[in-house]
Amino acid sequence: MSMEMYPLIFEPILKDRIWGGTKLETDLGKTNLPTKTTGESWELSAVNGDVSVVKDGAYAGKPLTELLEKYPAEILGTKVHEQFGTQFPLLFKFLDAREDLSIQVHPNDELAKKRHNSFGKTEMWYVMQADEGSRIIVGFKHKSNPEEYLKHLEDKNLIEILNEVPAEKGQTFFLETGTIHAIGAGIVIAEIQQTSDITYRIYDWDRVDANGKGRELHVDLALDAMNYNTTDTQKNYTQEPNQSNVMVDCPYFTTSYLPLDGSAGKSGNGESFTVYICTDGAFSVELDGKKYDFKKGDTVLIPAAMQSYLLNGKATLLEISIS
Hints:
Layout: E1 8-9, E2 13-21, H1 23-26, E3 38-44, E4 46-47, E5 50-51, H2 64-70, H3 72-76, H4 78-84, E6 90-97, E7 103-105, H5 109-116, E8 123-130, E9 135-140, H6 146-154, E10 162-166, E11 172-175, E12 181-183, E13 187-194, E14 200-203, H7 219-223, E15 245-249, E16 254-267, E17 274-287, E18 290-295, E19 299-302, E20 308-321
InterPro entries: Carb_Metab_Reg_Kinase/Isom, Man6P_isomerase_Firm_short, MPI_cupin_dom, PMI_typeI_cat, RmlC-like_jellyroll, RmlC_Cupin_sf
Keywords: Isomerase, Metal-binding, Zinc
Protein name: Phosphohexomutase
């Protein structure tokens, strides 16, 4: 039986985080936040234990993994299916940092496979909102080494050797594995990453929970996962209206900036799925005479077999596929 074609949207998986807040509701329209410290909305996930469920239409209530077992090539695309089987290779999230996130690093594919039987975690951030004075911590100020890094960590002045960038709406950061980083307080981010939940937490600002307990740190694991060189993480991109303006192109995903003002026709070759994250405004996907409406805060999966459709509206979209 062939798959019914339409744009898929999923129930958000909301996560309480010590550093989270309420902007996922106030800014992005996520309802029923479990707590006033809800830091993450997992929009599209096939991570074990956190599998996304289709929100509406013919497949409402179906887990993403079940659809992938049944229609792998139709959803993932012929090329992606060939590479990943029935695994969904990316994870899409929104993050609301009311406080600073921990300073952390992610392992590469090789290390993650060896230690955790997982993918590594290459990721990118798009800043959707930034309070005045907020900042992103990304990479070292100058070329460092394990000795210098550990000394500053021990003396609780690690931040002195890290690169801090004032945060602004529209900024894009591409974080290859091994890049030391932290999202600062007062920022809402759209995050695109490999399907992996492996994080090595290095420093958590000496925070403790209600029971006086700090979160687990992974200083030893991080030592050989880290890139001690300076990194060029911030990406500039063009903003041609109704066009896909490439922001990040890497082996794991290609992300483009699509400022929609009117309409843009889209056609694919069936090799990869496409995901649209709406970071501002509202838009519709038109397919075979039917119209599907979406708004800011929606993350939409276009199955690879849905090869020809029209985007309409006034919106800022991130467009993601695997090339």
